[in-house]
Design brief:
By secondary structure, this protein is an alpha/beta fold. The protein has a domain at 61-140: Nucleotidyltransferase, domain 5 (2-Layer Sandwich), CATH 3.30.420.270. Helix content is 31%, strand content 15%. The protein is built from three helices and five strands. The chain has helices spanning 19-35, 81-94, 110-122; strands spanning 61-66, 72-74, 77-79, 99-104, 127-130. It has a five-stranded mixed sheet, covered by helices on one side. Strand 2 (72-74) and strand 3 form a beta hairpin. Helix 2 (81-94) runs parallel beside helix 3 (110-122). The longest helix is centred in the first third of the chain and has 17 residues, at 19-35. The protein starts with 18 loop residues before the first helix and ends in a 12-residue tail after the last strand.
C-alpha cells in the first residue's frame, strides 16, 4: 500500500475553553474586593447609644470599646485602665493626629467612660470622640 495515497483524517471533538470563565471569576473577585468596606473593630459587640446628630470621622482613628461590664477593648484585646493609657500613648507617638473614638455600650457605667477619657487626655490625646448610632443618612449630609 502506498503511504502517500492513504491518509487518515483525524477529527477533533468540540473543545471547551475555560479561559473566559477564569476571566469572569477574576473580575468578580476584583469587584468584591474593591466594593467591600473594611472597618476596624474592637473585638466585642457594643450596643451604642443613639444621638440626634452625629459626625462621621474620616481620619486615622483608634477605637476603644467600653463594655457594660466595665471592660476595655482595643484592637480585639482586653486591657485594664493603665493598659489603655499605654496603648493610646503608643499610638499617639506613631500617629500624632490620631482621633480616639470611645465606643461605650449604652448600659456601661459613666465612671468607666470617664476613666477612659481621662486616661486618653493624660496620654496626650487632643482629639476625642464618643461613638453613637447613626439613625438616618440625612444626618450625614453637610
Amino acid at each position: 500500500m502506498n503511504p502517500f495515497l492513504s491518509y487518515r483524517r483525524t477529527r477533533k471533538g468540540p473543545e471547551l475553553s475555560i479561559a473566559p470563565l477564569i476571566d469572569c471569576i477574576f473580575l468578580l473577585l476584583i469587584f468584591f474586593m474593591v466594593t467591600t468596606t473594611f472597618t476596624k473593630e474592637t473585638g466585642v459587640k457594643i450596643n451604642k447609644p443613639s444621638a440626634a446628630k452625629s459626625d462621621v470621622l474620616l481620619e486615622q482613628n483608634m477605637l476603644i470599646a467600653v463594655t457594660k461590664e466595665g471592660e476595655f477593648w482595643i484592637e480585639k484585646q482586653k486591657y485594664d485602665i493603665e493598659g489603655v493609657r499605654f496603648k493610646v500613648d503608643e499610638r499617639l507617638a506613631e500617629y500624632p493626629e490620631t482621633t480616639i473614638v470611645v465606643m461605650a455600650d449604652k448600659e456601661s457605667l459613666t465612671g468607666s467612660v470617664v476613666d477612659v477619657l481621662d486616661e486618653c487626655k493624660q496620654a496626650g490625646a487632643a482629639k476625642l470622640s464618643i461613638a453613637t448610632k447613626v439613625e438616618s443618612l440625612e444626618e450625614l449630609e453637610p
